[in-house]
Amino acid sequence: MKYLFLFFFVLSMTTQAQKDSDNWTKLAEKTVAFKSETDKIQLLGSNRTIDKVKIKCVQGTLQLKSVTIVMDNGKEKKYDAKGVGVLTKGMSSMAYAVPDKDDKVKRIEFEYDSKGAMIVTKKAKIEVLGKKE
Predict the structure, then answer these.
(1) pTM for this prediction
(2) Class for domain 25-131, per CATH?
(3) Hey, is 114 helix, strand or coil?
(4) Residue 119 predicted with pLDDT over 60
(5) Angle value at C-alpha 110, between 109 and 115, nearest 5 degrees
(6) What's the CA gap between 119 and 98, in Å, rounded?
(7) Closest Cα partner for 60 from 85, 42, 33?
């Protein structure tokens, strides 16, 4: 009986995780260079009213250093992303809260270091994902 309970508990947790991952919407994508730099990604369209942002690596290897969320009204919040570590294909950063949930996100700035050699590895590609709670 307790194994049956355990089975349904694990199944419900898996289903909840899948539902949570389905709420993320792709807002932008970017191919990053093989050097350390800061990129600014302007968000366009109607998907800019969000509560959380995360960065997903879809190709290559990338180390995030910081993420800054800039709102239309000028408010901004900078997050230190060094604790995230190195992102490889399929991995995502943690979710970062938007500083003003009543306004739209204007742009995302992120400082990174792309890992790899120009001849050997592909450039890193990232997606900026947003979520409205």
Answers:
(1) 0.75
(2) mainly beta
(3) strand
(4) no
(5) 155
(6) 37
(7) 33
